[in-house]
Amino acid sequence: MIDMVAVKRVLRQLTAGFAVAAVVIVAVLAGVRLGDPQSPDLADGAVLAVAVVGLVGLVIAALWYSHAGERPASPAQVQSGFIIRIAVAELGLLLGVMAIFLTGALLPALIGLGLFLISLLLLYLGLKQIPDA
Question: What ranges make up the beta strands (E) of 20-128?
Fold first, then answer.
C-alpha cells in the first residue's frame, strides 16, 4: 500500500522534471534556426490554437488548485488525477513545439511554455493542499 506522503513526493519530483524538460526543449528549439514562417496566417493560427489549448489546461489546473483537499481521496486517485491533469496541461506546449516545425515561428512554443509552467505551478500548489493522512 502506497501512502500519501510518498505519492506527493513522487508527484513533486515529476512536476519539477516536467518543468525543467519543457524549458530545455523550448530553449534548444529556439537556438535552432528553422527559418522564417512560410505562411504568416498559419503562424497566427498556431498561436491561437496554442493559446486556446493552453488555456484549457490552465483552467483544469486552476480547478484542481481550488478543489484540492476538499474531499478525501486515496493516494491512487490523487496520483492518477494529477498525471491526467499534467497531460492535459502539456497539450498546449506540445502543440507549440509542433508549430515550430510546421511554421518556423517560436511564439506559439513560448506561449505554450508559459501556460504550461503556470499550470504546473497551480498543480503543485494544489498538491500541497492535500492532507498527508
Answer: none
For the question of whether the overall pTM of this predicted structure is more than 0.85, the answer is yes
What is the rounded distance in angstroms from the CA atom of residue 22 to the CA atom of residue 14?
Answer: 12
Report d(CA 108, CA 21) in Å as an integer.
17
Predicted confidence pLDDT, tens digits, the chain (133 residues): 578 889 999 999 999 999 999 999 999 998 887 666 667 778 888 999 999 999 999 999 999 999 887 888 888 888 999 999 999 999 999 999 998 888 888 899 999 999 999 999 999 999 988 888 6
